[in-house]
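Notes from the pairing session

We agreed to fold both candidates in a single pass and log them together. This is the raw record for the first candidate, unedited. Please don't reformat it; downstream parsing expects exactly this layout.

Candidate A
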Amino acid sequence: MGISPTLIRLSLVVAIGIAIVAVYHGGDPLSPRAMAPAAFETPVNARNGVAINGYDPVAYFLNGEAELGSSTYTTVWRGVEWRFVSGRHLALFRAQPARYAPQFGGFSVYGAAQGKAYDADPTLFDIIDGKLYFSHNERVRDLWLENPDGYIAEADRVWRASPGGDVNG
């Protein structure tokens, strides 16, 4: 009694599915999705040309929370659109964009330390030494906060060596 052709096809489909999932995850079990599993090719994590999913980078500093910006108050910096909740926030950003922009282009700081351009959740943020950092999810945030200085130093080293990450912020 041999293996049925149906079982062979099913096994092949499962194997292909596992390979696709591994590639999609970038090989990192802590990340449910990766934007690009290799070095950073762009300086800003932007979906549909909008940085940090439309969240106002200045609001993290002035209001201490993640706030969605408005398409009424926008600017283009580093080739992508940035949105703000008010004209005041827009003016502050235009005057000093590197001060308010998230580190590592808005990619996950833990992922950056691993050399991977993982998407980040803009509602999971930390401001450390006056700089804005995002995490991919709660588990990753808890992990990176066990050693933020170490992960920041490693992410900075990797970021500066990548094509899109020649400068921070």
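Candidate B (folded immediately after A)
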Amino acid sequence: MAKCAICEKGASFGIKVSHSHRRSNKMWKANVQPVRVKTANGSVRLNVCTSCLKSGYVERA
């Protein structure tokens, strides 16, 4: 679900450490937005991360 169609950026996993140093699992999700994108066949709705949108890898329809 939270995966970029352009750069394949997705969720990353790690360990959250509290102030008392208790450790628990944590998941960070990519900032993925549903966007209408121009393609050769017309416009398609894709899930694109905001860094790809900002850097201009896709053109909005």
